[in-house]
Structure formats: structure tokens, C-alpha cells
Design goal:
The complex is a heterodimer of chains A (648) and B (184).
Chain A (H helix, E strand, L loop, with lengths): L3 H24 L6 H6 L1 H9 L6 E2 L4 H13 L29 H31 L3 E2 L2 H13 L6 E5 L6 E3 L5 E5 L6 H12 L2 H14 L4 H23 L5 H12 L11 E3 L4 H12 L9 H17 L1 E2 L12 H13 L5 H14 L2 H7 L5 H11 L19 E11 L2 E9 L9 E11 L3 E13 L5 H4 L8 E7 L2 E12 L27 E11 L13 E8 L16 E4 L7 E2 L3 E4 L2 E11 L12 E8 L2 E9 L4
Parallel strand pairs in A: 3-5, 15-16
Antiparallel strand pairs in A: 1-7, 2-3, 4-5, 4-6, 8-9, 8-13, 9-10, 10-11, 12-13, 13-14, 14-19, 15-20, 16-17, 18-19, 20-21
Chain B lengths: L2 H19 L3 E4 L2 E4 L3 H15 L10 H19 L7 H28 L5 H16 L11 H35 L1
Antiparallel strand pairs in B: 1-2
Helix pairs in contact in B: 1-2, 1-6, 2-3, 3-4, 4-5, 5-6
The chains are: A alpha+beta (648), B mainly alpha (184).
Chain lengths: 648, 184
């Protein structure tokens, strides 16, 4: 934790968890034994140590509220510990300060840290004083020492040093490494009291006591947690009573209750690293109630006890993911707007496809919240100011070229190229898939997709407009986008050029009747989107205009291609009836047939494509060694070329 | 308590579990009514607890839980009829936990009662109770469930089998008690 907001989130989350546990424990108070009652606090231990997830919530969206209020308040301050537009970082549950405080919230955090030190100092001083006091103790009598030794053997506990101390009213154990049993000055010490203290020692209750004291120090300014830690201490004592009762029989059970009753008014040691049989009158009354229920708990409940703890842990620790929909947040309402912006900081893009999808939708829908989700956090303030000034989510500076694109456009991602594990580049195209009008335009923006803590998108260079649709390969195949593969070879019968491109798709299907994309796709946020398909587009050009003696357009020209993955692989051609062109690939590529068309005299072009599941391990053309191309004139094979990838 | 009363109670409990586990919805326009509501099942169980608690004292502990589950399912049933829905994380959590414990202890107590009459199917009831409890807890474990969706399907299938087997075992126990009454 590096600022007061992180602590606030942590302590409120722990409070909520403790509150739920108290209610559950109350429900099962008479049904599940003290063993379970104390064991239930293991869920709280998990919550104390596992950093709060900013993307999930339970009952109330605490992380969202804290992030929102943090931004609203810190905007007016100049904190060195807190960044307004960066989300809270919850890496661990302990305070860390690296700079001097400058704002009120910084100083509050410093006060909190000082408070922890104060509590720790208080514990150390109390323990030191106790240690000093113990030096005044005298060893117990030989008879008592023998009794303690026998009892230790019976309980399978290593015997410890025992002393008698004048002035104390109830026995206690102190110390973890070399525990000391401290007894009051009395003629007779009941065996059951010794048994209780030795049980504390057997189960290292003094060590657990130290742990709970540390947790109390971490949450010193939370009064509810003080009550909770008191309750935990009482449950520990009840569990110890349970363990003692399991060793007693008959009249001893009743006598044990009477012993506790006599201690109701006794003062008790309350120092870190100690555990005492007496813990206050009110608490002893509750322990006696538990003793009365000792044999009334239903038997055989061990399995369901553990299952209940599993369910509790799952809900209280894991929580539910936020369901993000920015449609309900009005920019004119400053409270809602601040909450929406807080959500964009918490709900980031967790996948590469999610970042591209969110960024593309932000441009199509002109939605600043979507843009804030997919952009670097350093852009948050700029987007925030633009939206605030314009009172609209669309008032951020996107390109003016987007005005040429219809509102219900869709998008496509071409040539997604991996530069490193945390950096990809691609060409983002926004428009219609197929052009139906001469005026249809495509918005083209090259982008880089980076992974910092989450995936973000950064535009590369200035966008341009192209004519047509983004599935019109012949339109978009240009230098701006580039190709995955370009091979060319000139033979006796002309020049063959093969160009291939890849584009990725996220399936945004939706049955919503509201405003959707072109082709009825959904506009909702999908920060965890995955690519569903990887598609290829191939363009094969056969130009024989330079072959003078072959200038005879009346020839029937056909082409066959076949991709091979190794030098030794033989091409496997086929030609379907009534087909001018055919292609065969390898692996999962589907076969493609298409007609050649004349671009101009003696220049034929064919385009085709294939679709692959995005779950394929290999990318299309990843293992392409080259293409065999067979040229047929009037049904006769006139030439066969091999366009090798490595040679180009 | 004689076998006849116990057999009648088991019959009621078996029918109650059918009501709890099964739904039979009929739609009337925009209204959908479940004609075998769970709250009725819990009501019957509550009634049998009154009968059986003399024989098994720990059943008394389940009375408030049974009542709470009856109220919870009753309200849910009414809201469904009205076409409304209400979801609260905390109420869902409590109802899941209470339900898990309730059915575990209830079936355990039933098994203790039938064991005292030496019914052969008692052990089977305990095994089904354990499997049911574990199956309901497994999805709460922090495993990558999206990657192993087949396991969820498997759990659901096994759960359906357990439900059917539990109801069947309860009816079987009823018959076993009736046979013992005839014999004695």
C-alpha cells in the first residue's frame, strides 16, 4: 500500500469480510463447534494477506467507489503518493512510503504508518515489562512440577518452565520459542487449569496471538476491527476450552465450568505473546454457554464445515467481476462521469484482441470512455478534460477523417505482426466490409498494441482514407498496409506475383435491436475479447503483356497454385471443372477457387481467401516455403514456376 | 415412535425433495408459475422435523434454518410469478451456505434415525449426502473452469444422478421401514 486510499480499500474490504463472517458464525453458533467457529477466521486471514482485486467486488463495489473518490479529491490536491489518473495499486497489504508527504492525504497516510509503529511499540513495551516481571517469579514446587510434567506427557506436549508469580490472579502462558507457564500464588492449582494452559502451548496459541496483534496494529484506526480481533481472541479461548473438555469426563466437565465461573471477575494478562485462561467476565459467560453446548453439537459435520469455508472463501476473496456498461453514465452528471472514468482505470483490456476491439469501437462510436479504457493511463487526463469541456463522450480529439465513415461501420485488423511478447503492430481499418457505393470510404490507421500491466493501443502516424470496403483486397493492398508475403517471378510466359495478407476478426454478434454495427454486430465493451478467426487474402497477378508473341487474348488462360511447406514437398495441383483458377494449401487451409478476371489486356488477376480458427497454433503462411504456379494455355501446361519465399 | 409414523415422515420428506429439486413451469401469457415450488418442499420438511425431533434432538437446530429457506424460496417464487427478479450477493451467499449445511445435517440425522431401525439403505443415504455436498462445493474452488468446461458438464450430470438417487433412496427407506413394521 502506498497511499491512504489503498489502505482505505484494504481495511474496508477486510471489514466487510469480517462482518459477513460474524453473521455466518452467529447462524451456526449452536450448530458448528468452537473448532469451526475459530477456523472460520482463516477466511479473514486470506483476506488480510491477499491484495484486494480492483476488478471484482462483493456486495458493494468498494474498489470502484474508492477509485472514484480518490480521483475527485486528489484532483484538488498535489499528492506525491497518489496519482489521480492511475488506478490504485494493491500489490500487498503493508504500507510503504518512498517520498516525503505533500498533501493532506499524504500526511494522513504518514499518520497511519506512525500509528502502526505506535501500536507495535506498545506491544513491545508491554512484553518487555512482562518479561521483567517474570524475573520476580519463583519456580513451582517439585510436586507441581512433577504434575505438570505428567500432564505434558499425557497431552503430548514438550514440558515447559513453570513459575509462580505474586500478584497475578489467573494462570497464563507466555513466550513462543521458550514458553513459560505462569501461575498465581495459591495452595492448590486445579489440574484442569494446567491442562488449559498446556493446550494453549500445544497449539501455539501465543504465536497466533502475536499474529492477531500485528493485524490489529495494521488496522489500528478501524474500530470495528478492534471488536473483531477481540472476538477472535475469545473464539481462541473457546476452542481451547473445547480441547480441554474433549479430555475430560463426567463430573470434571461441570467442574471446569465452575472454574471459569470463579474467574469471571479476575484480571487477566493481555500482552502480546500470552494466552490466559481468564479473558474477562462477559467473555467467560459466553464460554460457559459454549461449554453447556459441548455435547449437543451435531456429530459428523466436519465435511460440511470445510465446504462452508470453501464457499465463503470463494465469494469473499474472489468476488464478482464488474459488469461494465457505459451507457448508463451521463457525462452531464459529474458524479456518474467520475465513476465512469474510475471504471475505465479499473476495467482495462486484458487481451490483445480486447484492446483492439475496444479502441476500434471507441473510434466508430466516438466514445471517450472506450478510448480511455484502451489508451495508456497517461492519456486519461487529456481525454477527461476533453469530455468535461464538451460535456459529451464524443468530444475527444479523434481524426476528422472519421466523419467520412458511417456510424454503423465495422472494423478489421490487417497484418497483425508480433514484434515481441509485449508489442504488436497492425493496420486498423474502419468502414464497411464490401463497398456498395462509390462514396464508401475506409479509415486506415496503423496501430501499435503494447502490454504494460494490461493491453493498450497507440496510433502510429496519421490515418488515411481509402475507397471501397475493407474486404476488397484489391483496394486495400497498398504500401500503407503492406503484405505478409509478396513473391514474384518472371518466366517464359509472363510474370506471376503472389501477395497475401492476413486479417483477424473478433466475432461481435449480437441480437440487440439497438444501434449496432454494420452487419448487426454488437457495440458493447469486450475488454477480454479473443480473436475468433484468422483470415487470409491472396492476390495472384499473371501479367503476360511483355510476351509479344503471345498477345492473343482469345487464348483460354488458366492458373493453378499450390503452397508447399518444404523444399522436398511435391505440389498437388487440381483443377475443378469450369474453373479458371484454383489453389491448394496445406494444413487447415481450405481450398479456394476463383475466376480470373482481366485487369487489362494480358493481365489477369485472381483473389481469394481462407478462414482459420484463431485457436490454430500456427499462423497462416508461417511455415510457407514457397508457391508452385502452373500456367495453362488452352488446357495445356505451358510453364511451371516455383516462387521460393526465402529467395525473394 | 413407531415405524409407521417414521415411514410416513420419510414419504413426506422424499416428496419434499422432489419439490425442492424439480421445477414444473407453466406459462400463462407473460406469467410463469412453478407448480412444484421449493418452498412447499421446505414446509413439508419443517412439518416432519416437528415429528422427528423427539427421536433425534439435533433436528431442533435445523428448524430456524428450514424456516429461513422456506421464506427465501417463497419470496423467490412470488417474485417469479410477478415477473420480477431480485438478486443480492449477500442473500445468495447466505442461502447457499445455509442450504448446504441444512441438507447435510438433515440427511445425517435422518440416517441416524433409520440406522437405529437397521435399515440397509442408510449407508447409501449418507454416501449420497456426501457426494451432493462435495459436488456443490467443487465449483467454488479456484480452478480454471473456462478451460475445463467439460468438468462442469460432468459435475452437473453427476448431480442429476445424485438427486434422483437421493429421492429414490428416501422412498426405499420408507419401504424398508414398512417391511419392518409388517415383520414386527
Amino acid at each position: 500500500m502506498t497511499n491512504i486510499w489503498a489502505f482505505l480499500l484494504q481495511t474496508l474490504t477486510v471489514t466487510l469480510t469480517a462482518g459477513v463472517l460474524l453473521v455466518v458464525k452467529a447462524i451456526f453458533q449452536d450448530k458448528l463447534s468452537p473448532r469451526w467457529q475459530y477456523g472460520a477466521w482463516s477466511v479473514l486471514v486470506l483476506r488480510l494477506f491477499i491484495p484486494v482485486s480492483l476488478n471484482t467486488y462483493f456486495i458493494v463495489p468498494l474498489s470502484l467507489w474508492i477509485e472514484q473518490f480518490k480521483a475527485m479529491i486528489e484532483q484538488m490536491l498535489s499528492s506525491t503518493y497518489t496519482s489521480v489518473y492511475e488506478p490504485l495499486k494493491m500489490k500487498h497489504s503493508f504500507p510503504v512510503m518512498t517520498q516525503l508527504p505533500t498533501s493532506i492525504t499524504d500526511f494522513l497516510f504518514v499518520i497511519y504508518a506512525i500509528g502502526i509503529l505506535f501500536f507495535l511499540a506498545k506491544y513491545i513495551i508491554a512484553y518487555t515489562q512482562l518479561k521483567h516481571l517474570l524475573k520476580q517469579g519463583t519456580p513451582v514446587s517439585e510436586k507441581l512440577e512433577y504434575e505438570i510434567e505428567l500432564l505434558s506427557k499425557e497431552l503430548h506436549v514438550k514440558p515447559c518452565r513453570a513459575i509462580v508469580l505474586n500478584g497475578i490472579q489467573s494462570a497464563f502462558i507466555t513466550g513462543c520459542i521458550h514458553p513459560v507457564l505462569v501461575l498465581p500464588e495459591a495452595e492448590f492449582i486445579d489440574r484442569k487449569i494446567l491442562m488449559h494452559e498446556l493446550m494453549h502451548m500445544k497449539y501455539h496459541d501465543a504465536l497466533q496471538n502475536i499474529f492477531w496483534c500485528l493485524m490489529r496494529a495494521l488496522h489500528w484506526c478501524n474500530p470495528f476491527m478492534h471488536l473483531v480481533f477481540d472476538r477472535i481472541s475469545n473464539d481462541m479461548e473457546s476452542l481451547c476450552d473445547q480441547r480441554v473438555l474433549e479430555c475430560l469426563e463426567g463430573e470434571d466437565l461441570r467442574e471446569y465450568g465452575l472454574i471459569l465461573l470463579k474467574m469471571a471477575n479476575d484480571k487477566y494478562a493481555r500482552a502480546v505473546g500470552t494466552s490466559s485462561i481468564s479473558n474477562g467476565g462477559k467473555n467467560i459467560a459466553k464460554r460457559i454457554e459454549a461449554i453447556a453446548r459441548f455435547k449437543k453439537y451435531p456429530k459428523g459435520m466436519a465435511l460440511v464445515s470445510i465446504c462452508i469455508l470453501c464457499l465463503l472463501s470463494s465469494m469473499l476473496i474472489k468476488g464478482n467481476a464488474y459488469e461494465v456498461s457505459y451507457d448508463t453514465y451521463s457525462p452531464a452528471n459529474s458524479f456518474e462521469f467520475e465513476q465512469a472514468m474510475a471504471l475505465t482505470r479499473l476495467h482495462r483490456c486484458t487481451t490483445l484482441a480486447g484492446a483492439i476491439d475496444t479502441y476500434a469501437k471507441s473510434l466508430i462510436l466516438e466514445n471517450g470512455l472506450y478510448l480511455a479504457t484502451a489508451s495508456p493511463l497517461s492519456q486519461q487526463e487529456t481525454i477527461y478534460r476533453q469530455i468535461t469541456e464538451g460535456q459529451s463522450y464524443s468530444q475527444f480529439k479523434a481524426s476528422n477523417l472519421l466523419k467520412e465513415i458511417p456510424y454503423n461501420s465495422s472494423y478489421c485488423v490487417y497484418n497483425l505482426t508480433k514484434i515481441s511478447d509485449s508489442l504488436y503492430q497492425a493496420a486498423l481499418l474502419i468502414g464497411k466490409g464490401y463497398s456498395s457505393d462509390e462514396t464508401d470510404k475506409i479509415f486506415l490507421q496503423n496501430i501499435s498494441i503494447l502490454k504494460e500491466d494490461d493491453w493498450i493501443v497507440i496510433p502510429d502516424g496519421n490515418p488515411i482514407l481509402l475507397d471501397g470496403g475493407f474486404y476488397d483486397f484489391e483496394v486495400i493492398a497498398n504500401e500503407e498496409i503492406g503484405e505478409v508475403l509478396k513473391l514474384q517471378m518472371t518466366g517464359e510466359y509472363g510474370t506471376v506475383t503472389i501477395r497475401t495478407m492476413i486479417y483477424h476478426e473478433v466475432t461481435n454478434t449480437s441480437s440487440d435491436k439497438g444501434i449496432t454495427f454494420y452487419n448487426h454486430e454488437t457495440r458493447s465493451l469486450k475488454t477480454d475479447a479473443k480473436f475468433d478467426y484468422i483470415n487470409t487474402r491472396s492476390l495472384i497477378d499473371y501479367d503476360y503483356s511483355e510476351i509479344v508473341h503471345l498477345r492473343a487474348p482469345e487464348h483460354h488462360v488458366q492458373i493453378q497454385t499450390c503452397m508447399v511447406t518444404s523444399k522436398d514437398e511435391q505440389p498437388s495441383y487440381y483443377l475443378l471443372p469450369n474453373s479458371d483458377y484454383s489453389s491448394r494449401g496445406s494444413g487447415n487451409q481450405t481450398t479456394v477457387t476463383a475466376s480470373l478476371k482481366y485487369i487489362h489486356d494480358h493481365h489477369l488477376r485472381s483473389s481469394g481467401g481462407s478462414s482459420y480458427s484463431a485457436k490454430m497454433k500456427k499462423q497462416p503462411f508461417e511455415d510457407c516455403y514457397g508457391f508452385y504456379v502452373r500456367i495453362l494455355w488452352d488446357g495445356e501446361i505451358v510453364e511451371e514456376l516455383f516462387l521460393e519465399r526465402g529467395a525473394q | 415412535m413407531n415405524n409407521k409414523i417414521l415411514a410416513q415422515a420419510l414419504n413426506k420428506i422424499a416428496k419434499a425433495y422432489l419439490f425442492i429439486y424439480l421445477n414444473f413451469n407453466l406459462n400463462f401469457g407473460s406469467v410463469s408459475i412453478n407448480f412444484i415450488p421449493s418452498w412447499l418442499g421446505y414446509l413439508w420438511i419443517h412439518q416432519t422435523i416437528q415429528t422427528l425431533k423427539e427421536k433425534q434432538k439435533t433436528l431442533t437446530l435445523l428448524e430456524p434454518l428450514c424456516f429461513a429457506l422456506m421464506i427465501y424460496h417463497g419470496i423467490d417464487w412470488c417474485l417469479n410469478i410477478l415477473g420480477l427478479s431480485f438478486h443480492s450477493d449477500i442473500i445468495s451467499l447466505f442461502s447457499e451456505i445455509i442450504s448446504l449445511y441444512f441438507h447435510f445435517q438433515f440427511l445425517t440425522d435422518l440416517a441416524e434415525i433409520t440406522a437405529s431401525y437397521e435399515c440397509p439403505s442408510t449407508q447409501k443415504l449418507l454416501q449420497l449426502r456426501t457426494i451432493r455436498t462435495v459436488l456443490l462445493t467443487i465449483p467454488a474452488l479456484p480452478l480454471p473452469w473456462k478451460q475445463i468446461t467439460w468438468s462442469i458438464i460432468l459435475i452437473v450430470l453427476i448431480y442429476i444422478i445424485v438427486i434422483v438417487a437421493t429421492c429414490s433412496t428416501l422412498f426405499t427407506l420408507e419401504n424398508e421401514l414398512k417391511e419392518k413394521e409388517v415383520l414386527y
